[in-house]
Design a protein that fits this description.
By secondary structure, the protein is an alpha+beta fold. The chain has helices spanning 14-23, 29-36, 43-49, 85-97, 123-132, 134-144, 146-150, 185-203, 229-232, 235-250, 252-272, 277-287, 330-338, 344-367, 372-386, 391-401, 409-421; strands at residues 61-69, 72-79, 103-106, 111-118, 154-165, 168-178, 206-213, 220-228, 298-303, 308-316. It is globular. It starts with 13 loop residues before the first helix and ends with a helix. The structure holds NADPH dihydro-nicotinamide-adenine-dinucleotide phosphate.
Length: 422
Amino acid sequence: MKKKNWLGFQKKTRLERIDMLKENEIIDSDFENLLKENENLSTEIARQMIENSIGTFSLPFGVAPNFLINDVEYTVPMVTEEPSVIAACSFAAKLVSKSGGFSTKILDRKMIGEIALFDVENFDVAAEKILNSKEEIIKVANDAYPSIVARGGGACEIEVKKLEEGNTSFLVVYLTIDVKEAMGANIINTMLEAIKPLLEEITHSKSLMAILSNYATKSLVKANCELDVKLLGGSEVAKKIDLASKFAKMDIYRATTHNKGIFNGIDAVVIATGNDWRAIEAAGNAYAVKNERYEGLTTWTFDENTNKLNGELILPMPVASVGGSIGLNPSVKAAFHILNNPDAKTLASIIVSVGLAQNLAALKALVTTGIQKGHMKLQARSLALFAGANADEVDPLVEELLKVRHMNLGVAKELLEELRKK
Ligand code: NDP
């Protein structure tokens, strides 16, 4: 494969960057045109996608180059409104790529749906009846969505659990489903609604609801990386990153911010690829409580013997390569094209690696210079835009803003006026 050239990518114009994507053989001519024309979701498609639509809503679309994941190079598409996310992610990806890249493992890829039964007379008897009828229930579920079975997926397991609190109790039936390339919400809900009457009949109880669970503990993905401490600026930094990861396990105030940073990267790719970011956020935050306290999701360990810093992130990542709105939005198609059209497992691996990279960049900055230094330039850029600077005025205004002690919109407006007088 041709060696990719990213020299000066950040400093190029938007069109030059797209040219570089083409020269690096990341996009073909069709997508070059689509990206250059900034072709977006049409209002007509948008009208079909949601209710009461009054238009479409744009967000910045960028790429983070230099990801090496399981020995494959990726340029990762990211959609975010937050400055510095993509720069930080690309920086960390480059560091990790110099140390052999990320390695990932799909621990499983199935979804869970649940039906809550109440007014159950005898839980043990009801649970036994359900488990004895497992095959029949799974058959009814699969008959309700034969196309997923034809694709090699479908319902495959049933578990039951009794929940009791005070005088309220439920018998919960969990159905495990292989949804293949989809996220599976509609597939699962269709199956659950089909088996609901059967469960009520078998158990002589009533069902409260039947719905997929976003706590996708059977869709776990693990990403690892190992960095030579020299790349981080020495073992002191590696030790501090190790400590920062421990701190985020112990302090919920830090853990929440730590995980928010991880989702800065994850959400950006999830949105770019047309996936359901609420589902991914909900799953990740619930998974952060798996040890019965809310913890930072990454684990960084400094090994004094090898002088290496090891990073690990395990997350539920039930993303899809088909279904939902994927395929309707031209920008989502472009994002998939940039990633060389990954299947759902590969996409999940990329996204968890991005989360680990984003966290590395944040921790490295936090335990060394602090994050404000890097943020100030981007903050100045935002202020320049808010102050009304045009394309030619932004850079000189940013330069002036960085010289003042406290920058704000008022100062930006004043400096812009002065610039215009010159
Ligand atoms: P879809 O309803 O779009 O179903 C997936 C579609 O992809 C099916 O029509 C299937 O076709 C098609 N498909 C093509 N190839 C494959 C393949 N290889 N593997 C699997 N499916 C394939 O989407 P989902 O059921 O995934 O539901 C996702 C949507 O549901 C998202 O938009 C999400 O926001 C939303 N949602 C989320 C909820 C939640 O998270 N709690 C709740 C409700 C909705 P075929 O039918 O021919 O098999």
